[in-house]
Amino acid sequence: MFPEFRDLISRLKTEDAHFARLFERHNDLDHQISNMEAGVTPSDNVAIEGLKKEKLQLKDQLYAVLKKASAS
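^ DUF465 domain-containing protein, sequence as received from the core. Prediction below:
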């Protein structure tokens, strides 16, 4: 995710607690969705779609933080 910001992501994960929490939640959702889609975790399409929407919102928030940090 966001390879152009790889160095900035590494720095923000250690320096910005809010960014770190968003990043961790995004990764948690990614794993949950993968497990649900693979059938490892029981689920239905409605639950998966809800998690995907939350993940997309987090990605938007992460991108906003990255853009702001890269501009400064």
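The chain has three helices and no strands.
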